[in-house]
Design brief:
about 600 residues, alpha+beta, 5-stranded mixed β-sheet, 5-stranded antiparallel β-sheet
């Protein structure tokens, strides 16, 4: 159980909450299946064989959840904190409910014809999955269990591993179609987590996994000797496979004739149909041949399984061939254009200046990552809600000013006195913004705005270089009139750390051009200092008159607490695993010569 919890923790640590939610639900369902006959409640006079309450099945679930959440706390605690402040905190049904289109069901058998092929697992695995149910009549019944278990038993059917994986695959398939079917609306209303994640087709992961498990069970079944009744049933499957193969031959002939007859037509769909039917015929014929070999020829089952695995691998490899045979990315895929070179030269004099490229450089909105400059138009589906509102609400010139956007690349012609044209390339122009504020600056006046801060920031007479907008009175007395200039120098800059030297002519507020977020800490002259939200999304530190050394570091409590929990849980996990003997190597009984 502890090892299963660690496996679940790895899924959470991967950093994709949606996948972790799906895997967690499957794990809980598997626990229900495995423990359905181990209830402590009495039934038919039966006494629970468990010798101790410590072996209660519910305790297994508690241990699993404890280690899954404990080992991964360093991941999910900061994630939950970020989600609470992000645009994902408030999403609606229309945002989350998208899934496969109904017509994409055909990709179960015909991959890539309508979209991609995430539902396709291969012809032979589908047949092996069917074979997993051949032995169901001989399954031994289990005592006790859930209501659905009892109902099935009353009908003479005891749930097996094959039934569990079939049910998992079926539910995942239904959910993957999102609001096109009834399953996702129910999950949205009653299953925690489904209302926070989008693109429900991603649950095809569980469909593929469940079908793979069924295929493995079917392969194991076919690898054992057959009873006479089983041989009769499998012979019926062989005849149906032969009929399907012959039917495909007929369809191929019809498609070929249609292609010839429509050769002079502007729209000819038959070549596309042939591209799908011919490979399907090949794999179905191969499956039929393997089935006949297993039933009628005394061939080694081991070599037959090896051949089956080889054909499955070849089938799946061929379906994804366009991905496998892509050309390597050339070294000049994102070339340094004239604008990029000019921008690099400009940034040497202003390394902390931000850029708004409007996606016009090589790499589009990822150009900042490709060419190592600070871009405000990055490509990221996850945003802080306040930052997204700032981007939507602020006037463009004021937004650039507050964020320190010194360079703008645009197709537009900017006729404004603060902007000067630096270079042009094709339709794209590089402008320098003289009104861009530095990474940090001192102000000695404040405007308290309990509400509608954007109305104040967008006012033409509001000067953010001289006045800062706060939502409450500052914790320091400010001068009645503006003093002489107060210089600020950036001593060091790195992700999560900013070191500043400031000389305040009078009491003031040091405005920091970084986005406010829980976890930022300010130290002034070696002493902790309050950090205020300023100008909607920025930060400010109160400073008294005189010289100061200011250090800002990003150290979220969620990361510290999560790391502590994960570390302690890891120690407990190692102790349990060591005592269980899993890590103990077997002793050699044969002397080494």
């Amino acid at each position: 159980t502890a090892a299963a919890g660690a496996a679940m923790a790895v899924s959470i640590l991967a950093g994709h909450p949606q996948t972790a939610i799906y895997v967690f639900y499957m794990a809980i369902a598997y626990w229900i299946y495995r423990t359905r006959g181990l209830s402590l409640s009495k039934g038919r006079g039966a006494v629970c064989p468990l010798s101790s309450i410590l072996r209660h099945p519910l305790l297994y679930l508690i241990v699993f959840v404890f280690f899954a959440l404990g080992l991964s706390a360093i991941q999910w605690l900061p994630t939950l904190e970020f989600t609470r402040f992000s645009t994902r905190a408030q999403v609606n049904y229309a945002f989350t409910s998208h899934g496969f289109a109904p017509y994409e069901i055909v990709t179960l058998l015909i991959p890539g014809y309508l979209g991609g092929s995430p539902l396709y697992i291969g012809i032979i695995p589908m047949l092996l999955a069917v074979a997993a149910f051949d032995d169901r009549a001989g399954a031994k019944p289990h005592a006790g269990g859930l209501l659905v278990d009892a109902v099935m038993r009353a009908r003479g059917f005891a749930p097996t591993a094959a039934f569990f994986w079939l049910l998992t695959a079926f539910v995942a398939l239904l959910l993957s179609f999102g609001d096109a079917l009834f399953a996702y609306p129910l999950a949205y209303l009653f299953a925690p987590g489904f209302a926070q994640v989008r693109d429900q087709e991603r649950i095809a992961l569980l469909w593929s996994f469940a079908l793979a498990m069924l295929a493995a069970l079917g392969a194991a079944r076919l690898g054992r000797p057959f009873s006479r009744a089983a041989r009769v049933r499998l012979a019926g499957v062989e005849r149906r496979l032969g009929g399907l193969t012959a039917g495909l031959v007929a369809l191929i002939a019809l498609a070929y004739g249609g292609m010839l007859a429509s050769a002079d037509q502007k729209v000819n769909l038959f070549p596309g149909a042939l591209r799908q039917l011919v490979p399907a015929f090949f794999w179905l014929a191969a499956a039929w041949g393997l089935w006949r070999l297993r039933l009628h020829v005394a061939v080694s089952r081991r070599w037959l399984m090896i051949a089956t695995l080889g054909l499955i691998g070849l089938n799946l490899f061929s379906v994804n061939a366009p991905s496998h045979f892509q050309q390597p990315t050339p070294s000049d895929y994102y070339p340094e254009t004239t604008l990029v070179q000019t921008l690099r030269a400009e940034l040497k004099a202003h390394p902390l200046a931000r850029v708004a490229s409007e996606g016009l450089l090589p790499g589009a909105h990822n150009a900042g990552a490709d060419f190592d400059f600070q871009e405000i138009t990055g490509n990221d589906p996850l945003q802080l809600a306040e930052t997204a509102q700032f981007d939507r609400t602020m006037q463009e010139l004021r937004k650039w000013q507050l964020l320190g956007v010194r360079y703008i690349i645009t197709r537009r012609e900017i006729a404004h006195g603060a902007f000067s044209l630096v270079a042009s390339e094709g339709e794209a122009h590089l402008y320098r913004n003289a009104e861009a504020l530095p990474r940090a600056w001192l102000v000695h006046a404040v405007e308290v705005v309990p509400a509608d801060v954007y109305g104040v920031l967008n006012r033409p007479d509001f000067d953010p270089a001289q006045v800062v907008a706060l939502n409450a009175e500052p914790p320091i007395a400010l001068p009645a009139s503006a003093p002489a200039a107060s210089p600020v120098e950036v001593a060091a800059y790195a992700p999560g750390r900013l070191s500043l030297r400031a000389r305040a002519a009078a009491n003031g507020l040091l405005v920091i051009g970084e986005v406010y977020y829980p976890g930022w800490q300010a130290v002034v002259d070696g002493q902790r200092a309050p950090l205020l939200r300023a100008d909607s999304i920025l930060m400010a530190v109160p400073l008294s008159a005189g010289p100061h050394q200011v250090e800002l570091t990003f150290e979220p409590d969620s990361v510290k607490i999560g790391g502590l929990i994960s570390g302690l849980t890891l120690l407990a996990w190692l102790v349990i695993i060591a005592r269980s003997g899993i890590l103990t190597l077997p002793r050699h009984r044969t002397p080494i010569r």
